[in-house]
């Protein structure tokens, strides 16, 4: 293992000079600093960030708060966060609120006390109404809050692409199986769908829900989707779409012959179902990486202005969407949308 002593020997300077060159380079002459950095790079030396953090009063750890770690989307975000944090020698503490806003606030309070900064994925609680964060560095994922840094997929472009795809297939009556009402992404998608419908008066958009962003939520929506007369449905996420497809098929309809179905997030679920699910794709791992970059920068520059980083999204067409066929709609038992267990979603 390469040590700071090895770097000092290779650069021909003292250990103290190496330490200053790496931790506070402005205190070292440029030529000396360059020599130290070149030696460290040649030897593959990585400074002990934990020790440096203790001297600076830092933990060298960040928190990641998610609403549901069993949701494939958040698991992939967590992987991106972990990858980027590991490359910087930073530990990641992951907390799962299990869709509970009250638990989210409690978990956030704990993370604030143990980390240098926090990543909040699709927060369920109304964070702006709490004083939990205070001045603690924070970055939001799939949510924009005031001047705080945020990273999200461009779900507006994704929603438009999905709706235009269904329209191009000949669908004119389309259901949107909505997520929870406080979801930032859901609100943006609704607005985007409405804008497309205004450009194409022949379209009839049925906004149904809200429904929990789960397989069970999609299953609960199936009867309402069928009763709406829609020939296609765009679901809030892939898990909702899978639940919807399974229930629709159980009720005697065929996907996509009787009902086309599309989802969001393009998770691994899309190819585990039959027919394979059309879905809006984005680089979710990159979402986690970029959010981590913003947070590490925020920790170093707490007064830097916030920014919303939108990463591209596009539609991946598979077998669950096709031109509409006339169908005899069965008469399933319908029920109103179930009450949301918690507000908010990606």
From TrEMBL:
Keywords for this protein: DNA-binding, Transcription, Transcription regulation
Write down the InterPro entries for this protein, in alphabetical order.
Answer: HTH_LacI, LacI/GalR-like_sensor, Lambda_DNA-bd_dom_sf, Peripla_BP_I
Q: Name one Pfam family in it.
A: LacI
Query: In the record, which residues are listed under signal peptide?
Result: none
The record places domain HTH lacI-type at 2-56
Which PROSITE patterns does the annotation name?
Answer: HTH_LACI_1, HTH_LACI_2
GO function term, MF aspect, one: DNA-binding transcription factor activity
Composition bias, kind Pro residues: at what positions? 333-346
Q: Where is this region: Disordered?
A: 322-346
Provide the protein name. LacI family transcriptional regulator
The species this protein belongs to is Miniimonas arenae
Q: What does the organism's lineage look like at the top?
A: Bacteria, Bacillati, Actinomycetota, Actinomycetes, Micrococcales
